[in-house]
Amino acid sequence: MDYVLGFDGGGTKTECVLMDAAGKILARSFSGPSNPWRVGVESATREIEKAADLSFEEARVARHVIVALGAGLAGTGNPELKERMHASLAGAFPGAAVSIFTDLEIALAAAGEGPVIVLVAGTGSAAIGRNAQGQIWRTGGQGPRFGDDGSAFDIGSRAVARAMKEREQHGKDSILGRKILEQLDYASWPELQERATLQPDNVFPSVFPIVAAAADAGDPAAREILVQAAGELSSLVHAVAEHSGHGRENIMIVKTGGTVGRCAFFDVQLDAALKRVLPQAQIGGLRMSPAEAAARAARH
C-alpha cells in the first residue's frame, strides 16, 4: 500500500501526519522547529525526519513505502530556502514526490474552500485571504526584524523589555519579571540578555506561556501586552480584508497558531479586536490541521 506524509513546520514545533492511500490518518507525531529561515535547512530537515520516524514507528510503516510528501513550512516564502528544503527532503525521502508549501498556503488549504481570511499567530504572525473570485492576498510573515507584530516572539520580547525597564525604574522585579526569570531558570537579567542576543528564538517565544498564564491570573502588565498584541494581529486581518474587498462583507476569519487557544484572556481580546475591524465577520477554526492539509495536497 502507498503512504503519504504531511508536515506543518514552524518556529517552535513540527507536526507530522502519516496517511494511507484512502486518506485515513494512521499516525500523528511532533518534533522541534522546522522553519529553515530560523533554524537552517539541515536542522529543519532533521526535525522533519524525527517527526516522520515517530509516525513510522507508531504505524509500523517503513520509510521506503512513502510515495508523496507535503510540507507546509514557515520561512519558505523565500524562493532559495524553498528550493533548498525541497532538495534536502527529496534526499531524505528518496522515491517520494516532494511538495513544499508556505505555512500560509497550507493554512489557507486547511481552512476549506470559499472566501476566508486566515490569521496565523504563532512564533511569527501573518494573515492570508481568498475572495470569492479565488484571488489571494497576504500580509505579515516578515520575521522578527521586520514584522511579526503580535506573535509569540513579539509578545515575549515586549514582556522582557517591560520587565527590565520596571527593574531599572523601581530597583526590583515586577511580579511578571520574577516569573519570567524563575520559570525560564535565569539567575539574572544580564544572563537572559546574553542568551536572547545570541539565540532570540530560544528565549522570546518561550516567554509567551508565562505572559498568558499571568494574564489569565489577572496580572495588569501581562494583560496590557496581550491587548496590544491583539490589536496588532487584527491590523493584519484588516489589511487583507481591505485588499481583497472583504471590508464590508460577512467574511469568515479563521485563527490558527501556537498563541491561539492557550490563554482565555487573549482569545477574548483577539476576538474583540477582530470584531472591531470587521464587525460582520464570523470567527472560527481550521477545518483540518495544516499537517493533514499538507498530506492531502501531496496526494493530488
Quick summary of this structure?
By secondary structure, the chain is an alpha/beta fold. It contains 11 helices and 10 strands. The protein has a 5-stranded mixed sheet.
Describe it.
- There is one protein chain.
- The chain folds into 2 domains: 3-108 and 289-299, ATPase, nucleotide binding domain (Nucleotidyltransferase, domain 5, 2-Layer Sandwich), CATH 3.30.420; 112-284, ATPase, nucleotide binding domain (Nucleotidyltransferase, domain 5), CATH 3.30.420.40.
- Helix content is 49%, strand content 20%.
- It has helices at 36-39, 41-59, 79-92, 103-110, 152-170, 175-184, 189-198, 204-216, 220-244, 264-277, 290-299; strands spanning 3-9, 14-20, 25-31, 66-73, 97-102, 116-121, 125-130, 136-140, 252-256, 282-284.
- The chain has a 5-stranded mixed β-sheet.
- Strand 7 and strand 8 form a beta hairpin.
- The chain is globular.
SSE blueprint and pairings:
Layout: E1 3-9, E2 14-20, E3 25-31, H1 36-39, H2 41-59, E4 66-73, H3 79-92, E5 97-102, H4 103-110, E6 116-121, E7 125-130, E8 136-140, H5 152-170, H6 175-184, H7 189-198, H8 204-216, H9 220-244, E9 252-256, H10 264-277, E10 282-284, H11 290-299
Helix pairs in contact: 2-3, 4-11, 5-6, 5-8, 5-9, 6-8, 8-9, 9-10
